[in-house]
Amino acid sequence: MARNPERNDRKSGKKPAGPDKPRGRGDGPQSGPRQGGKGPVASGHDRGGSDRGGPDRGGWNPNPPTRGFSDSAPRPSRAKADADNFVWGRHPVLAALANPARKGTGRLLATPDRAAELERDKLTHGHRIEQIEPQALDRMLPPGAVHQGLAFKVQPLEGVALDDIAHEGGVIVMLDQLTDPQNVGAIFRSALAFGAKGIVVQDRHSPALAGALAKASAGATERLPCARVTNLSRALETLADMGWRAVGLDGSAEQTLEQALDERPTVLVMGSEGDGIRRLVAEHCDVLAKIPMPGGFESLNVSNAAAVALYEASKKQAG
Question: Domain 82-153's class?
């Protein structure tokens, strides 16, 4: 429920949904991302195809080939299945090793050169190093993972309670259904750089704080608290009761970000690219604001928009 006329007279002004984002209404569960186009067609099963061995005779083949193991449906790779349990790259791994919550847990993998560096500079924080060749480490991680000779196999961080990041003023960032690991990781990095108190995400619609997300954050996921909540609208109500003011980023808003921000404790609410902030979440914001773009290009990547908003909010907080 909206709490003042300022938010009642505004609408979220959603943009057309992108090809890989669901169109959401409200703050409840939604269907998964839409598939862009038709799904893959199984090899050798096209109508009129003749790659089963022998001539095509109306569906009957007098010389059926022996079905080998390689013809079976491919299984998902172990690296893909375990991606959420890995942190890789120098900065993310060093941050994870230094995180007190990781003490005594995890499996630290390092190439010989990196292992020597960790031992020389005393960066292991009590974790035992398992040396591994670069090619073997490549096979353990998702294709294209830039591991820089370091990987740490650990469970994803569980997060903190909302009260833990809202007990004192400042800036909190709330992410409404942002699912791209690169964007979320970059927002963590900017939030830490500009002194935000923490990040709030919806539990069922956010990626694990590991893998590509942790790499994009450059270790910020290990240092910046993250609260996972069931319902963002109720979380905004709780924060309002604690004295926080919610400012939602919306390109169609009337006020600019500079006009909307002040020195009070502020929640910056960021929506997904394409859909923007969902209706019920927008209605729980105290004000919607836009980033003015005099250059005429009306769209910023959401992580870039978050960095601009955090910069403006940090200036207001500093007085």
Answer: alpha beta
Q: Tell me how far apart the alpha carbons of residues 204 and 140 are, in angstroms, rounded to a whole number.
A: 27
Q: Where are the domains of the chain?
A: 82-153, 158-318
Query: Has residue 124 got a pLDDT over 50?
Result: yes
**Fold (topology level) of 158-318:** Alpha/beta knot (3.40.1280)
Is the pLDDT at 285 greater than 90? The verdict is yes
Q: Is the dihedral of CA 25, 31, 35, 38 positive or negative?
A: negative
Residue 129: CB partners within 8 Å, gap ≥ 6? 108, 109, 110, 115, 118, 119
Percent with pLDDT over 90 in the chain? 65
Question: Is the predicted pLDDT of residue 247 greater than 80, yes or no?
Answer: yes
Q: What is the token pair recorded at 108?
A: 């630290």
Q: Is the pLDDT of residue 75 over 50?
A: no
* pLDDT beyond 90 at 44: no
How far out from the chain centre does Cα 218 lie? 13
Task: Provide the mean pLDDT of the chain.
Answer: 81
